[in-house]
Design brief:
By secondary structure, this protein is of the alpha+beta class. The protein has two domains: about 70 residues, Orthogonal Bundle (Arc Repressor Mutant, subunit A); about 55 residues, no CATH class. It contains four helices and seven strands. It has a three-stranded antiparallel β-sheet, with no helix packed on it. Strands 1-2 form a two-stranded antiparallel ribbon. Strand 1 and strand 2 form a beta hairpin. Helix 1 crosses helix 3 and helix 2 crosses helix 3. The longest helix is centred in the first third of the chain and has 14 residues. It starts with 14 loop residues before the first helix and ends in a 5-residue tail after the last strand.
Length: about 140
């Protein structure tokens, strides 16, 4: 499906960010490791220059959605496996930016926050990477 009309040349949003948004939608449907269309194909489909496509792919790479290999192409970054962490009534969940150590340890892209779980009656927080954790509220404590 051709989508040149999806890049609004009169918008205040730069074309590379518009293209990145369109590609984000497409990436969601790709399998882990699947190759995105080539730069040339994206240039032709969206009627944009090479710089626009490269900047859009760089934005997606910064967000941790793709891996770009020079001379090969851009691939859907593998989704990390998700862990289900049980939480009980009275537990609280919040988010915060990861520390530098957590970012390195979990190899987190800049856009991912940490999920922070404080169990009722406990003083210590438990922190989990937000891109690979689901916190499920249960009916009874632990």
């Amino acid at each position: 499906m051709s989508s040149p009309e999806r890049i609004n040349r009169t918008s205040r949003v730069p074309p590379y960010l518009q293209l990145a948004d369109v590609l984000r939608e497409r990436i969601d449907a790709l399998m882990d490791g699947e190759l995105l269309p080539s730069i040339s194909r994206l240039m032709a489909e969206f009627n944009v220059g090479r710089g626009v496509v490269r900047n859009a792919l760089a934005e997606l790479e910064r967000d941790g959605l793709v891996v770009v290999e020079a001379g090969v192409g851009a691939f859907r970054r593998p989704r990390p496996p998700q862990a289900a962490i049980p939480a009980a009534p009275g537990d609280t969940v919040s988010t915060r930016p990861p520390t530098a150590t957590e970012r390195r340890y979990y190899d987190l892209p800049p856009s991912v926050s940490m999920l922070v779980l404080r169990r009722a009656g406990q003083k210590e927080d438990e922190a989990y990477p937000g891109d690979r954790t689901v916190i499920r509220i249960t009916d009874s404590p632990g």
